[in-house]
Structures are given as structure tokens and as C-alpha cells.
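Final report, closing paragraph on structural work. Over the funding period we assembled a curated collection of sequence-structure pairs, and we close with a single example.
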Amino acid sequence: MSRAVDRFAAAAADLGVDLRVTRYPAGTRTARDAAAAVGCELGQIVKSLVFVAGGRVVVALVSGADTVDTGRLGAAAGAGAGDARQARAEEVADATGFSIGGVPPFGHARKLETFLDRRLLDFEEVWAAAGAPDACFPIAPGELARLAEASVVDVAAGAGSGPTAS
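Its predicted structure, as stored:
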């Protein structure tokens, strides 16, 4: 395993869980790549997206089939509807300890406020990144919310609505 995947697995173990991390040589960098590799619906892939809202780094966990409505995310983070933007690569790495494409939903370098989009709860099982662009793990979305200490909110954009980031 890579150091990043090992760090994530150690963080999960510290939380008392033993996750089944699987490596996919073809990669799982995008939600579509991950769904194809895993053999699940696109909606079952969890995108761990990092944003800056009100000057704070936050994480949005959304379905691979969805995008984040930055207005909703800003409001959920208490930063105002127009005050959320996707984090730059260096901000992501600094805050999470992981590179874009492999950011897991928890186990970050520092404690980050996390929001899980309610639509993920529609699935019995979802798949999330495990620290590297070729590693992911299955988990029940309720357990994911618990481990990530995520607030369950509506942050996904509806078709054709508002500003988004994917």
C-alpha cells in the first residue's frame, strides 16, 4: 500500500473500524472511473470535495452523480451563500494531508467541518476514496456520516440550479 493509504487505514483503525480498502490499477481518480472499477452506480461513489467557506476549509461529501451547490454549502457552513469556493490543490493537501483524487472522507491532517449530502443516505452502501487515486472502500452512508462527524445536509445542486463545483 502507499503511505497515504496506510495513513488513512491507521486513522480508520484509530476510530475503531477496519475498512476493506481495495486498490484498482486502472485508477479511481474520477467518480466515473471509480464506479466502473468497483462495478456500482455512479451515485454510490462518494466525492470528498474540499472548499473554503467563510475563510475556513470544509469538506463536502456528495454523490458521484451530483455537484455541490456552493450557495447551499456556504449557508450550511455559516459563511453566507456567496462565500464558498473550491479549494486550490495546495489548500487541499495542506488541510487534508491528501492529494486531489484520493482525498478520503475522514482521517485528515487536521479536524475539518464536514457536510454529507442527504442523497447519499438513499444507498445501502457507498464507496469512498481511501487516500490515493487508485484506492477506495465500501461503507454504509450512515456509518460514513458518523465516522466523518458530518452534518447531514442538502448541499447537492439540483439539475440546472445555481453555482456548482464538481
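The chain has one domain: 3-165. Residues 159-166 have pLDDT under 50 and may be disordered. We thank the funder for supporting this effort.
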